[in-house]
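Each record in this resource describes a single protein on a pair of labelled lines. An example record follows, reproduced without changes.
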Amino acid sequence: MGSLLLMAVCSAAIGASDGETYAEAHQLTMKTGKPMLVMVSTEWCPACQVMKRSIMPQVRQRKVFKRVAFASINPDQERELAQQITGGGPIPQLILYTKTTRGWTKRTMIGSQSVESVESFINQDIVTDDKEIKDDSAPKETKSDDVVKTTEKT
């Protein structure tokens, strides 16, 4: 219980907003089968700031976020998790984990994008019905140093 509280406090302290931590998004994805969208960005990256302060709020206004569990990760504070998710790739980066009949897929979008391209990226493979999707092929959750991780299942 103490480590969960510490994780929540740390997430709030490093700038996670609106309860959009990776752990919370992962939990929602595992519970509902909703796709999980993760944005990896830093405070010092100009393109990241455009995405964070301009593009993503507009995507949210278009109600696209209701179809996904969203999380934001800053590699400067969550280095190990960001490394695992992006493979050390460039930022900003959007990663979308989507449930399919063959298991979970992972798609990425790199660099600053338009509202329309982000919306299209999110909507591309999302199932249109709201049925709950569950099975054993979901990304697995592990804990190390109070950081929740996901590994792809191939």
Q: What stands out?
A: Confidence is low (pLDDT under 50) at residues 1-19, 128-154. The two ends are 32 Å apart (CA to CA).
